[in-house]
Each structure stands twice: as C-alpha cells, then as structure tokens.
Design goal:
It contains eleven helices and eight strands. It is an alpha/beta fold. The strands form two sheets. Strands 1, 2, 3, 6 and 7 form a five-stranded parallel sheet that branches. The radius of gyration is 19 Å and the shape is globular. Bound molecules: nickel (II) ion. The site of nickel (II) ion has 5 residues, from loops. Nickel (II) ion binds next to loops.
Length: about 230
C-alpha cells in the first residue's frame, strides 16, 4: 500500500509545474475572458518592487517597458518580473524619440536593454516607442529587432498629475475590455494608485494579463498595435 501511494505521489509530482514552469502558459484565454493589460513604462525604479508585491498579492500580471539606463541597476527586479510571470519589453536605451534618429541609431536604441532582459531570462517580443513616436523607419527598426511596437488605449497622464486618486479615477473611467493602460512605475503616486485600480478592475470582472496574453498572435515583428 505504501509503495502504491509513493507511486501515485511520484506521478502527481511529475505533472505539477515546477517554479520555473510558472512562466509557462497560463489558463487565460482573452477570447472569452474580459482581459485588460496594465503596462508600466520607464523603470525599473526603486518603487517597482512594491508594485510587484501588489501585483503578486492580486494574482495580476503586468507588462514592463523598461529603459536600458535603468535595467543594469535592477537585475534582481528584472529576474523577479520574469519569475512571477510578467512580461518585459524594450522602451529603448535612453528614452529616445526614435523618429528623430537614423534607422541604424533607432535600431541600436531599441536593442539597448535587450542584453539585460535576456540575462534575466525574459523572452522579449515587444517594444514601446517613447512618446508613442513612430514612423516607417522606426517600424523597420523594430522589425529588424524582432519586436512588435505596442502603444496604448488608456493614458491617465500619471507623469503629469502625480496624484494617486486622480490616476486611479482616470484609469477606472476609461478602461474597458481589451484596454492597454499606460502608467509609469517611476512615480510613487502611480504605484500608490494601483491597489485601488487592481481591486476595482478585478471587481468588475477583468483579468489583468500581459500584452502578449491580450494580443496573442497579432504580435509580429515591426507591427504597430493596437
Ligand atoms: Ni516612456
């Protein structure tokens, strides 16, 4: 009998995902679920760890468009993002307006954070052009980098207001199924707005997913979404 139980346990353990497997496909299908993607730009920063705590407590996933100037300073934060199922994308090395650069310089800017992201174990398929500034040259540079260009549909201008209540109110007023919400994890006011935002979106029945979970196979190198 003891041996049988051991065998059954061994079989169970074999199919239970390991910690590393936590990054594997989740059981969320945005064709049926009411999905929303929260995206966090310009970090990582000293506030990002707190944000990761909040997301983790809520079982929410986010997408982080990080700047190369910051990625080298926070390798452990990047690893934690990957381990906890968040998505990472390039937001360039220096937060450059890519439309003002040559094709070669735009490509180098886009590639800036990539080594740090790959060192953290991230599989990167997304970039976000700073200021949302893009054109056909930027599109070709993103394609060469193998990354889709991801813009947004909800922008509370959290960098401007720096008021948690206003940020939360604006996000909640405009977010609907399929929204891609742009906020910044370099502002403590934005991180402080997230408990309310996350709790209320969940109460409304939304699944907080990564951009790749939301957009699925629409993500292709060079394409601009949404
Ligand atoms: Ni930015």
């Amino acid at each position: 009998m003891g041996k049988l139980i051991t065998l059954v346990l061994a079989a169970l353990i074999a199919v239970v995902p390991t910690a590393a497997g936590a990054q594997a496909k989740r059981l969320v299908d945005c064709a049926t679920a009411r999905c929303v993607a929260l995206t966090f730009d310009d970090g990582p920063s000293k506030y990002t760890g707190k944000l990761l705590d909040l997301l983790d407590e809520a079982g929410a996933k986010g997408t982080f468009f990080v700047v190369g100037q910051n990625t080298a300073r926070y390798p452990e934060v990047l690893k934690r993002m990957v381990a906890e199922g968040h998505e990472l994308g390039s937001h360039t090395q220096n937060h450059a307006n890519l439309t003002r650069l040559s094709a070669e310089k735009a490509f180098k800017e886009i590639m800036g954070p990539m080594a740090d992201l790959q060192a953290a174990g991230a599989a990167v398929t997304l970039m976000r052009p700073p200021y949302g500034a893009t054109n056909s040259t930027v599109g070709r540079a993103a394609k060469r980098a193998g990354l889709a260009q991801i813009l947004w549909t909800v922008d509370p201008e959290d960098w401007r207001v720096r008021d948690s209540a206003v940020v939360a109110r604006r996000v909640l007023a405009h977010t609907q199924r399929g929204s891609i919400v742009l906020v910044h994890d370099i502002h403590p006011t934005t991180v402080a707005a997230m408990p309310k935002v996350i709790a209320e979106l969940k109460r409304r029945g939304y699944e907080l997913v990564t951009v790749s979970e939301l957009l699925g196979d629409r993500i292709k190198p060079g394409v601009r979404l949404p």
